């Protein structure tokens, strides 16, 4: 079986503290080719770098997640820029807007998102975008900032939003959500994404696909999401993985 590329994972998460090294070793031995581990907050980036240095197949992304904007130091962009020079940091993110929980600071989220998009543009780095319950503002910012190379991660929006995202030249990446019973919208959106703009991800430790739903997720479970995507696109699972791997390699330059 062809090996998997997980374009979005969080192996710095405490969910892996007990067995991280053993798990990663097993994943690379058995089913995984490459992983992008995403560092979402300032105090996570050191772990991101360590992970990329500990394992040949692990690459990293650094950015400020919209839920982690509290108490950002003035020089956070300079810190990202410094880390982006490291050879295995291949993208900025995840960044974006999240209006899911109450008491979010909308103005600040927009500011931090926009600043990071501009930095990525200046550094010529691909961008990983997170958008939850904030499609309208996210799209407005993307229309005005026009990122050169970006992926909308953990996509669960409508077919219409997918079309708009694709119109801006973005990639669309799906997690295990695609396999959920109530994921009709995501399935319809997936149908509309051209083969050369699709990517696969876990967003682990969250979002474990069916039949692992509710369990701690890891990169091997991408196989279930790939099988579902293959079914939607009318190709074999092997072929689907091959296509998504190729897209990931082009997108991240890995
Ligand atoms: Zn994530």
Description:
- The chain has 254 residues and is α/β, with parallel strands linked by helices.
- The protein is 41% helix and 18% strand.
- The chain has helices at residues 20-30, 45-54, 76-84, 106-123, 135-145, 159-167, 184-192, 222-233, 237-252; strands at 4-9, 32-39, 58-62, 89-98, 127-132, 150-152, 171-174, 198-200.
- The protein has an 8-stranded parallel β-sheet with strand order 1-2-3-4-5-6-7-8.
- The radius of gyration is 17 Å and the shape is globular.
- The protein binds zinc ion.
- Zinc ion (ZN) is lined by residues 8, 10, 38, 94, 203.
Question: Which properties best describe this structure?
Answer:
8 strands, TIM Barrel, 8-stranded parallel β-sheet, 254 residues, alpha/beta, binds zinc ion
Outline: globular
- Helix share bin: 40-55%
Radius of gyration: 17 Å
According to DSSP, the number of beta strands is: 8
Question: How big a fraction of the residues is strand?
Answer: 15-25%
Residue-averaged pLDDT: 97
Name of the CATH first level: Alpha Beta
Q: Which structural class fits the helix and strand makeup?
A: alpha/beta
By CATH, the superfamily comes out as Metal-dependent hydrolases
CATH-assigned fold name: TIM Barrel
Largest sheet: 8 strands, parallel
Which ligands, by name, code or SMILES, are bound? zinc ion
- By DSSP (H or I, 4+ residues per run), the number of helices equals 9
Label the CATH architecture.
Alpha-Beta Barrel
Q: Secondary-structure element order, as H and E?
A: EHEHEHEHEHEHEHEHH
Strand order of the largest sheet: 1-2-3-4-5-6-7-8
Through-space gap between termini = 21 Å
Task: Return the domain count.
Answer: 1
